[in-house]
What does this fold into?
Amino acid sequence: MDRRIEALLPAQRVIDDGDMLLYRALPTPDRVSIGPFVFIDHYRHHSTRGIGDKPHPHAGIEVLSYLLEGGVEHRDSAGFHDRLGPGDAQWIRAGRGILHAEQPLGGRHGLQLWTSLPAAQKFVEPAYASYRAADIPLVQAPGSRVRVIAGRVADAEGPMGLTTPTTFAHVQLDPGASVRLAVDDAAELGFYVLDGALAAPGQPSLGPGMLAILSAGSQVTLSAADRGPASVAVIGGLPAEKPILFSGPFVMDTPEHLRQAKHDYSSGKMGRLDGVPF
It folds into this structure.
């Protein structure tokens, strides 16, 4: 059964200053999560100015980065150091807490997403992995290219393993092209328009910054509008455990756990990076 669009949520333009355009699609007043995803930032900038280029902490989540264009240098308080280029993906299990910084190597276009760790995993040890573009499965059909980063989409399995069953794929469509994707019928799914426009039955086309929530089903059909190519992220998975409590870069299940994360950060238990925390 094909999934249909149940709700449309326009992302908030957090920054739009001529150099950087940053959309935030989750969380919103109307929606906190899709599957395990509780945060979606979609950014594009021209300079070497970054969003997370200064050391900052995370806890209680897994941080996913996917780079469409440009390059970035990663370093963190656990000693991991890496460089990512176009088409590469990155996974950080923040768990009990980690500090990291991402220095752009030039202009970039990409996604940063957070998944909420289950309550029993909120304080696990931090971990890190990256995945090169060449190692991410590519499913091609006339007019479409699908890169599967996590989960099973279009009979391909993504290499990124997360704590909660997760779906994350990047779909590129030629003008007017359509693709039908087999997906996990148990997953809570949506799609986010990165570039171009998708045709939507009975309504105007869906442009960049639009997040669609999908009904249940075992297939997803995406169709590009005739006027140009389209680029779309398909995201979701097993629903995040509730409650979900935010405090800046920390996502926990209880107020007590939020207080513990803040104390662990300020006391240096999450490690230090470039003298942070002071």
Observations:
- The mean pLDDT is 96.
- Residues 5-266 form a domain with the Jelly Rolls fold (CATH 2.60.120.10).
